[in-house]
Design goal:
CATH topology: Umud Fragment, subunit A
Shape: elongated
Distance between the termini: 96 Å
Radius of gyration: 30 Å
Structural class: alpha+beta
Number of domains: 1
CATH class: Mainly Beta
C-alpha cells in the first residue's frame, strides 16, 4: 500500500491566525489613539481651568495697549490676587455694581492702578497714588483722563483686599471710577501675552 501524500499545514483562511493578529494590532492602535485623544482633551481642559486661558477683547477700553478683538493669554496657575502689582493687566469677573453698557456677565480686563490701602486721586489728566504722580509710559502723552478720581483734598483710599483698576483708554473706559474697586477674589488671572493684535499675529509679553 502506498501512504497518502503529506497534506501539509492547513491554508490560512479568513479566520486564520495571521488575520487575527492584524486585527488585534489594529484594535490596539485604535485604543491607543482613543486614549491619546482623551488624555489630550483632559489636559487641555485642566490647562484652561487651572493654568492658562485665552480671552478676546470686546471693547476699546484698553486701547492703545489692547485693541478690539485682540487675543490675550491669561496666567491662572501659581497666581493669586496677593501677587498683583501696580501696572498689571488683569482679567476679573463682572463687578456687581457695573451699570455701564456692554455684555452682561462677561469677564473684564483692566489695568491695576492702586493696591489695597493706597490712596488715589486725579488732578487734570494726571493720576496720583499715595500723593505721587503715576508714571504711565503705556499711555500717549497728555492722554485725556475723562471722569476724574476723587480730589487732592479728599483722596480715595482703596479698601483692604480690593484694587482700583482703570482702562488705558481713560476718556471712554468704564472702570473703578464708575463701579468702585474690584475684590481681589474676583481676579481670574494676569495677562501675560498678547498673541493677536490689530487683526494680525503679534506676540507681546507683559
Amino acid at each position: 500500500m502506498t501512504s497518502p501524500a503529506d497534506p501539509g499545514p492547513p491554508a490560512a483562511g479568513p479566520g486564520g491566525p495571521g488575520r487575527r493578529r492584524r486585527r488585534r494590532r489594529r484594535g490596539r492602535a485604535l485604543l491607543e489613539l482613543a486614549v491619546t485623544v482623551l488624555v489630550a482633551v483632559l489636559l487641555a481642559g485642566l490647562m484652561r481651568a487651572y493654568a492658562f486661558q485665552t480671552f478676546w477683547i470686546p471693547s476699546s477700553s484698553m486701547v492703545p495697549t489692547l485693541g478690539v478683538y485682540d487675543r490675550i493669554l491669561v496666567q491662572k496657575a501659581f497666581f493669586t490676587w496677593h501677587d498683583v502689582r501696580p501696572g498689571d493687566i488683569v482679567v476679573f469677573t463682572h463687578p456687581p455694581l457695573d451699570q455701564c453698557p456692554g455684555p452682561e456677565g462677561s469677564d473684564l480686563v483692566k489695568r491695576v492702578i492702586a493696591l489695597p490701602g493706597q490712596t488715589i486721586y486725579s488732578s487734570g489728566n494726571s493720576v496720583y497714588v499715595n500723593g505721587r504722580p503715576l508714571a504711565e509710559s503705556y499711555l500717549p502723552h497728555n492722554d485725556p483722563l475723562g471722569l476724574p478720581i476723587a480730589s487732592r483734598q479728599h483722596p480715595y483710599r482703596v479698601p483692604p483686599g480690593e484694587f482700583y483698576v482703570l482702562g488705558d483708554n481713560r476718556a471712554i473706559s468704564c472702570d473703578s471710577r464708575y463701579w468702585g474697586p474690584i475684590e481681589g477674589s474676583s481676579i481670574v488671572g494676569k495677562v501675560v501675552l498678547v498673541w493677536w493684535h490689530d487683526s494680525r499675529p503679534e506676540f507681546h509679553w507683559f
